[in-house]
Amino acid sequence: MNTTVGYVVGVFDKYHHGHQFLLERCKKQCDSLIVGVHTDVFVESYKRKPFDNEEKRYENIKNSQLADEIVIIGDDHGSLIRKYKVTKMFHGDDWEINSYKKQIKYYEDGLDKLGVELILLPYTKGISTTMQITNKMPNMANYKEYLFDLDNTLLLNHKAMPFAIELIKKIRLLKKKIKVVTNNNRYSPKEISDSLNIAGIQIEEEEIYSSLRHAQSYIMKHYSGKKVYVWGTESANNWLSKNNIKIDLIENAEVIVVLYKNDYCYNDLVKLVTKCNDVPYIIGNIDYTYPDNTLKLPDTGCIESIIKNCTGKDPILVCGKTNPSMIEVHPNSLMIGDSLRTDKVFADNANIDFFHLHENGDISNLGVVCDYIDNTFCKEK
Predict the structure, then answer these.
(1) What is the spatial distance between Cα 302 and Cα 300, in angstroms, rounded to a whole number?
(2) Of 66, 96, 219, 298, which has the most beta carbons under 10 Å away?
(3) Residue 294 within a domain
(4) Are 302 and 272 in contact (CB under 8 A)?
(5) Is residue 204 part of a domain?
(6) For the segment 38-58, what is each residue's pLDDT rounded down to a tens digit?
(7) Sign of torsion, CA 133 134 137 141?
(8) Which residues of 133-142 are buried (b: 16+ CB within 10 A; e: fewer)?
(9) Strands 88-92 and 5-10: what pairing?
(10) Pairing relationship of beta strands 297-298 and 289-290 according to DSSP bridges
C-alpha cells in the first residue's frame, strides 16, 4: 500500500489561524505530513527578520499537533523530499505557481523528475503576520452582541464549520451575547440547538432566532385564531402547532405560510399557488438555495418567485433575513454570515457591522475572528 507523504514549508511567523487552517487542509490530503520551518537566516535573506525566532516557530508547529515531522530548513528542499519520499508539496495560493517553483528550485533540484505534485491551497483571507505586527487588525472584542448566520457559517450538513467551536468558546469567555439569526425553517429552534450542540457548538434554544419563530410571532399578533396552512416540513408544522398556531388543511386555510419543503409534487404546487391567489400568504425566507456541500437544493425563494409570477400578489410578510423586525438588535452588534443577499442586507437594515465569511469576503474562516479577538487582548494587556 502506497503512503502519501505531504510536505509544507513556510515561515509561520506569529502563528495564526491562517497557518492552522493551511496545516489542517494539508493533513487531510496525506497520510504523513512533514512541516518545514524556515531558518531565521534564510527568511531574513529574502524577506525580513522574523518576529518569532525559529525555535519559537518550531514550537508553535509542534503545539498544533498537525505535523508528523518538523524540520528547520533553509532552501534545501530536494534533500528533504528525497529523504522522506515526499509525493505532495503544499503552499498557500498567495504565490503564483511558476514563481513558487522558481523559489523552491523545483526544476533545478529535479523535483519534477521525482513526480512531486505541487498543490496551492486557498489563502486564508483577512489575517496575516504583517497585519499582526503592524497592529492593523480590527478590534473585535468590544461588541455587545455577536450575531451569526447558521448554515454555511456555523454549521454545514450538521458539521461545525472551521473554528466555529473555538470562536463561540472565546465569545462565551468574554461574557457577550450570542444570537443565531437564521432563515432555516426546516427545523424547530430546539432541533437547531440540538444539532449545534452535537457538533460541539454550545448554543441554547433561546439563542436561536429563526424565520420560523418570526412567522409564529407574526401570526399570533395579526391572525390569532385563524386557520393556517403551512407549506413546510413536518417538524415546522409540529412546532407551530405546539406554539398556538391553528394548523388546518389547505382547502380551509385563511392564511398560508410558505416555508422550506422538499417532498412536494407538481399537483401540490398547483394547489398552493391557487390558494395563495385567494388568501394572504407569508414567505419564510427569500433564499434561492438551501446550503449543501455538493447539491444545489432549491429553497423557499424559488417558491416565492413561482407564486408571485403566477398570482401577481406579493406576500404580506417576508420572514427572516433581510427583515430586521425578526429580532431586537443591539446597536453595537456584529453580524457574521456568508450571504451578501440576506446576511449583509439584514445587517444594513439593522444598521450594524457585517463581516462577510467567504473566500472572496472580508474573512474566509471564523479562525480569523479568533485572531482578531486575541489581538485585542494582546493590545489591552
Answers:
(1) 5
(2) 219
(3) yes
(4) no
(5) no
(6) 999 999 988 888 999 999 999
(7) positive
(8) eeeebbebbe
(9) parallel
(10) antiparallel
